[in-house]
Known about the structure:
Low-confidence stretches: none
Radius of gyration: 21 Å
Distance between the termini: 42 Å
Strand order of the largest sheet: 5-12-11-10-9-8-1-6-7
Oligomer: single chain
Number of strands: 12
Number of helices: 12
Amino acid sequence: MSLRDALRHQAGSNRHLDSPFTARVLDLLADNIQPGTPLTDRMFDWSGDIGPRGHSVPLRLLAGLHALVLIDACPALQAVYPPNPSPDDASLWAAIQVALTDHAALLDRWLDNPPQTNEVRRAAILIAAGHLLAGRFGLPIHMYELGASAGLNLMWDQFALDLPDGRLGPNTAAVTLSPEWRGDAPSGPCPQITRRRGVDLMPMNAHDPDDALRLISYLWADQPERLARTRAAIAILDAEVDAGDAAPWLEAQLRHTAPDHLTLVYHTIAWQYFPPETQARCAAAIKAASQHGPVAHLSMEADERRGAGAAITLMIWPEGQKLTLGRVDFHGRWVDWTAP
């Protein structure tokens, strides 16, 4: 995939995910960006897959542009970015050109790191599944997130889920999620979380100003509610995310399993990025851990049904029972809940 093709492909995805402004930015880049500077040459000459299933170069660049706005570093770009009125294409492209020319060093640094988006709305399925598991097992939960980034969704039990048939979670929650919910409301008591920990190859510390800036920059500038939710989740974050490969880390963590608690392992749009060996070792560790106590493996991941959101599946061990819980939009905007 060429750089221009990757930019246009990402523009289509952003438009589909309710971000028309960032889709325009990406389309303008696809139409107008030219090689000839160290920054643009780096992108045109990028080695490997630059698309969404590879290095996601368009999202790296888009985040760098957003960072310039967030730190008030490029007045020309800030003037044409939300919440300011959207300009015509010529004015928007002129501002992008200023950023590419005058702030190439910052944009180049943003190209160094793959996007890490803690999409807080994905926690809707964690809240729903957590209540289901609390009702089924009646045990305190030790939980472990794979591909946790900054760990914001390790706080899901402190978020609330507003549904047409009621509310799950604390009344004083700092973050309240209200997805379009299709299907019966989940049931079960509030889960009791007694251990929470995550792992990521390159974890971010959301309490560090530089990491917080990077985390916010990966969100899209024309989605203020998404930005507000993420900032609210950062404010209550109290979970550790270790740096490392998921397989050896999970093998070590699952030595703590015991009959008096439920071990919950989960991941949201992360498994697809693990090498096959890592996937196999994680799956084996989960199954082996169930010899010492109940284990649940919750997955929200893309499958062969492209364009239909992510599949929600739950494996319960030691029985090896697989439950299909439904499907969810990749950004958590809607949930088709089909839990039995």
